[in-house]
Amino acid sequence: MVEARAQLVMACSPDEFLEFALDVERYAQVDDKLGPFAWVRHEEDRVEFEFHPVMPGIPAPSPKMVPKMIAQGVLTPGKRVDVGLAPLPKSKFWHRLMKFNATFECEPVENGTLVTRTMTVELVPAVRWLLEPVLRRNLPKNIEAEIEKAKTYIEQHRK
Fold first, then answer.
1. Of all helices (H) and strands (E), which one includes residue 88?
2. For the whole model, what pTM was predicted?
3. At 63, is the pLDDT very low, low, confident or very high (cuts 50, 70, 90)?
4. CATH number for the domain harbouring residue 99
């Protein structure tokens, strides 16, 4: 299992950051792991989206060679967004390959919000030996860079 975590204080409210994180099309501007979207569906405190994922350090084959992933994000208002694979039968290929969880946790602090970004990938043994060392080297740096870009984006686009 590979887990990466980064924390940063953002000059916004928890709700402002969580709204940004749940808007995957906007959030993709700071997260290079979100490849092109086929579609995005919003429903109250939930978003479901189909896209070509990109994992840091792992060369991306032609999009036609890799099935798209269907993921979902669920908002707990004022607290967090949890992202993972959409339940079966969606994303069958990806469910067979890995377990994936990501969170954005927000805590109000002086001068803004402490955002904790966590991503966990647990690969099946058949590919673990090949992909896990690459993710261990690259995912932590990627998550740190992502949260820095998110901070810059929030500060530039603050309402």
1. none
2. 0.93
3. low
4. 3.30.530.20
